[in-house]
Amino acid sequence: MSHAAASPVRDWSGAWRACVETLFPGYFALVMATGIISNGMWFEGHRGLSDLLLAVNAAAYLVLAVMTVARVALFPRAVWRDLTDPNAVFGFFTLVAATDVLGVGLGLRGYGGLTLGMWGLALLLWLGLTWLGFMVLMLRGAAARMDIIYGGWLVAIVATEAVAVHGVLLTTHFAAPEPLLVFSYMLWGVGVVLYAIFIVLFAHRVFFAPVKPEQLTSMLWVVMGAAAISTNAGTELILTDSTQPFLRLVRPFIEGAVLVIWAWATWWIPLLVSLAVWMHSVHHRPLSYTPLAWAFVFPLGMYALASLRLAHTAGLSALAAASHIMVWIALAAWVVTALGLVDSLWRHWPRRQRGTQDHGPAVTR
Predict the structure, then answer these.
(1) Closest by Cα among 230, 91, 80 to 152
(2) pLDDT, tens digit, 9 for 90 and up, residues 49-102
(3) CATH code for the domain of 161
(4) DSSP state of 260
(5) 102 neighbors 93 (Cβ within 8 angstroms)
(6) Residue 159 sits in which domain range?
(7) How many domains does the chain have?
(8) In-domain check, residue 213
């Protein structure tokens, strides 16, 4: 083979290896965002659009899963470095949430066996990452000068509630669903307690310490998204009948908590929008695609779905009308972000005509 023929192959191979080695641990937020909008469209009755987004989501999940497995096999030191870095380890929780969100989408369409398998995988990943992540945070957080303003810690709450929602969906596939339902109640409670702990730390940080424009990334929206998915998980518990007297007694508490948590998520939206305006208009921070952009899209879709499920639970037609609007706003944000991803890949991926060696920041941190 001539050098001219081999060069493009080497470029593509080198680009692939570089993308795999530097893959952002939180890139599964792409799957989370696409999946939650697909699920929202399903409940809104737009089944064709929901199916299209599900197909895109399944493809994205497979690509990212292959890249993740390849990264573990080819660059184990890079993976371990991220897993032991308090600034990066919580990004892996997006894999848990993405597996659950995609699994729920498949479960809505009757793929019970596949849904169960994905829930089992998500649960195993959640168990491992929960103890590893918080061990790393406890032992290395102070030394690494962790700053909670980046919001990455809250992805752990999103993953916890996603496992709970997925588990509730699976109860319809078991003759004796009570143990799984009780476990989902427990997960919902763990997620709420963790959120209460982290939000106090987060609020103290942003309200009483200097905040720089470069610190205001899309990850801030996870503050709202974590509350929204806690609302969604709570509504799923309320809508699922139980024969356990104890769970029936707990239900009124969850009903009240869900309303408060949804109100808290709603309260954050104007503040987050104002911060975005301050960052881009006052400080002229450019709008450009980064993997963190998906952390903005997911909360919008999650809020739309949580509002719809709460409206169904409480019988609030006005809230349902608001969710109808919000889901289209989330879809618009998804389209813009997806176009940004395509543009970034097109501009930075090595091509023979340009002979570039830039290996594509579209998939790196």
Answers:
(1) 91
(2) 999 999 999 999 999 999 999 999 999 999 999 999 888 899 999 999 999 999
(3) 1.50.10.150
(4) H
(5) no
(6) 13-363
(7) 1
(8) yes
